[in-house]
């Protein structure tokens, strides 16, 4: 998993939680659009799940959705945001996101989605 979020604390806590729950292994993270863009362009096949916060400083996480629109089969793009309005959800899904989660209220659904993705990967091997 690669995580893009402006909060280093959130990125670290999320990576630790994923490791503790054995849901995923973080292969890296970025706090800005340019850092994420650079890593994603150099590692187009180096991730199974990409988690993006749309609001980054500097930059815009929404631009990363377009960058990953033609990703490989099996790569999942999840949006995790404080602003999961209906308009934001519709926009992100139209731009290629697989799901959109609200940071304030949908952590259980987010972790459930990751559990389902892990089970699907294990079953396909």
Percent helix? 40-55%
Individual helix count = 5
Strands, count: 5
Are there runs of 5+ residues with pLDDT below 50, and where? none
Oligomer: single chain
Instruction: Give the domain tally.
Output: 1
The major β-sheet equals: 5 strands, parallel
Shape assignment: globular
Indicate the CATH topology: Rossmann fold
The whole-angstrom Rg is 13 Å
- Helix-strand string: EHEHEHEHEH
Please name the fourth-level CATH homologous superfamily: Response regulator
What proportion of the residues form beta strands (DSSP E)?
15-25%
Quote the average pLDDT.
93
Give the gist of this structure:
This protein has 125 residues and is of the alpha/beta class.
Report on this structure.
By secondary structure, the chain is of the alpha/beta class. It has a single domain, classed as Response regulator (Rossmann fold). The protein is 44% helix and 16% strand. It has five helices and five strands, in the order βαβαβαβαβα. The protein has a five-stranded parallel beta sheet, sandwiched between helices. It starts with a strand and ends with a helix. 30% of the residues are buried.
Topology of this protein?
Elements: E1 2-4, H1 8-20, E2 28-30, H2 33-42, E3 49-52, H3 62-67, E4 76-81, H4 86-94, E5 99-102, H5 107-123
Parallel strand pairs: 1-2, 1-3, 3-4, 4-5
List keywords for this structure.
alpha/beta, Rossmann fold, five-stranded parallel sheet, globular
């Amino acid at each position: 998993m690669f995580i893009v979020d402006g909060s280093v604390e959130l990125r670290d806590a999320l990576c630790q939680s994923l490791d503790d729950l054995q849901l995923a292994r973080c292969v890296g993270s970025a706090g800005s659009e340019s850092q994420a863009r650079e890593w994603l362009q150099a590692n187009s096949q180096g991730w199974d799940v990409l988690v993006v916060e749309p609001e980054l400083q500097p930059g815009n996480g929404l631009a990363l959705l377009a960058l990953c629109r033609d990703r490989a089969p099996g790569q999942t793009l999840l949006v995790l945001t404080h602003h999961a309005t209906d308009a934001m959800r519709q926009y992100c899904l139209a731009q290629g996101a697989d799901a959109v989660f609200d940071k304030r209220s949908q952590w259980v659904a987010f972790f459930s989605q990751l559990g389902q993705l892990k089970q699907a990967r294990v079953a396909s091997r």
